[in-house]
Design a protein that fits this description.
Length: 357
Amino acid sequence: MDKVMKITPEISVIMAVYNGEKYLEEAVDSILNQSYFNFELIIIDDASIDATQEILFYLSKKDGRISILRNKRNLGAAKARNKGLHLARGSFIAIMDADDYAFPNRLQKQIEYMTTHHEIAVCGGYMEIYEKNGSIIKTLEENEEIRARLLFENCIWHPTVMFRKEIVLKTGCRYRTQSAEDYDFFIRLSRCHEIIFRNIPEVLTKYRIHPNNDRTEYAATQRALSRKIRKNQLAFLGLSPNEKEFICHENLSCLEAFHTKEFTPVEQYADWLRQLESANNKTQLYLSHIFRKELELRWIEVCLKTSFEDPRVAISFLKTGSTHLSLQKLYMAARMFWRYFKNNTKKNIIKNRQYKT
């Protein structure tokens, strides 16, 4: 191991931890047991008050590639990671969370990809959900698709990320916010055209979602900061949405959490999508045909969701120019009619049962 430490590491793995005693050893071991060995593991203990410090002391005795920095007071994950970036000696930075698990070939796959694709600055991949064994979270792979989607949501899974230290730090970007810090980091990087993103179609890590923990406050903070990030990016696109327009944008951005009770006519979504496309035609922030494809995808999804309550959505969908007339468009309109019919039938059955009782 002493021989390893004499070599300048090619990769610096950065892990920030706060009160991570439960999963810390497993996370660290998953890095130490990588098939690729020329790395350093920089762990920033963000003033933990549990057994984290003792576990790290024990682990550092096992492997000389581990470096530990302990903060005197809790600074938050963003500032802790920035300290790791400052200390990193490797040409590549890999991010690792203290409660996740890196598959044994993670670093090998990423370093091989990035050394054969010199244009790539940021490389991510797929994740497996720890609590749902076999459930894979995929994401977009190509640079221009990633950039377009970032206007609506993050699509680069932070626990899988590796990036070139020199080119990324040269942009001046560092971690800032204490929540949604990865989304903020990537969207600011996306404004630099020399930054090329890529997600490789490989499962690189197991990610914990902690379904039994009460994360209500955390989720609310994440949503609030994500809204702020999206609004800033809209300004970068040259748009200052009013309240109704921004509600449209938020619903288009958070399709999984879309709430049909807060009903907004689909015509308003169509109008906002037209504004987005027009603004992009002026700024050329996103590749036009890729951006239009992303807008079409979100238009279809919002129509499908609102069609549960209103069958006229299918007519609006057919009339709009947001998607070209095709067999697929006719099929999607038929699905919208069917969704309304199915939902309405279900409501009537429930009413009849209540009436009989």
